[in-house]
Amino acid sequence: MGRQSLHSAWWSGVRRRMGARTTLVVTFVTALALTAALVANAANPQVMHFTFADSYTDNDFCGTGMTVNVSFAGHATVWLAPNQPIDFRNESTGDTVFANPLNSTTVSTHSAYQFSTTLSSGDLTGLHTYEWVFKGGAEIIRGAHGVLSRDAGNLVVDVTFNGDEFVSVEIVSDRGPHPTFGNDCDVLVTALGLGS
């Protein structure tokens, strides 16, 4: 899995689409909103509830060189400092729709799962490993004729970084199945009619 982290890929896409000046403004507004949310939740500053929605055009969907329109929405509860032996926890539900503008084909995904992470070894500025635990329906992919793929159950993976740079991922336990963990492109590209 030689790809950049999901957050890095998302953020680099935001910077390309919006430019450096707009990115600075968005970062400032986001920081203010987060601060306001924390102050508003002062009775229990460890938990945040939020909804999210957006859409964008991916001009190189899954490395195919083809354009796909993407829209997503969902909600999540995040424990910033959970009172458990983990570093971070969230419960989220989300839906994404992928649309091929050339043939009007759409594919949707749904997820509803719990996620937690624990730093299991190393130093955050150097080589370090997290244990990520997914419980529930991580991703269900649906096309015009029903379910194409289903990632559900319990999945434990060790993810290694060197500073902020992704190094590797290793599945520790898969009580699923999770056939598209880390790469749902094969299913999505075929279902959208972008290639074989």
Keywords:
alpha+beta; globular; single chain; 2 helices; 196 residues; seven-stranded antiparallel sheet; disordered N terminus; 50% strand; 7 strands
Characterization of this structure:
The structure is a single chain. The protein is α+β, with helices and mostly antiparallel strands and 196 residues long. The chain folds into two domains: 1-44; 46-191, no CATH class. The chain is 21% helix and 50% strand. It contains two helices and seven strands; from the N terminus they run αβββββββα. The chain has helices at residues 6-40, 185-191, and strands at 47-58, 68-79, 88-99, 106-122, 127-143, 146-162, 165-175. The protein has a seven-stranded antiparallel β-sheet. The longest helix is centred in the first third of the chain and has 35 residues, at 6-40. The protein is globular. It starts with 5 loop residues before the first helix and ends in a 5-residue tail after the last helix. Residues 1-45 have low confidence and may be disordered.
Seen as an oligomer or otherwise, the chain set is: single chain
Radius of gyration: 18 Å
Average pLDDT: 77
Give the tally of structural domains.
2
Which class of secondary structure composition applies to the elements?
Answer: alpha+beta
Shape: globular
Helix content: 10-25%
Task: Tell me the strand percentage band.
Answer: over 45%
Order the strands across the largest sheet as they lie in space.
1-2-3-4-5-6-7
Number of helices: 2
Instruction: Note the run of SSEs as H and E.
Output: HEEEEEEEH
Termini gap: 21 Å
Unreliably modeled segments: 1-45
Number of separate strands: 7
Major sheet attributes: 7 strands, antiparallel
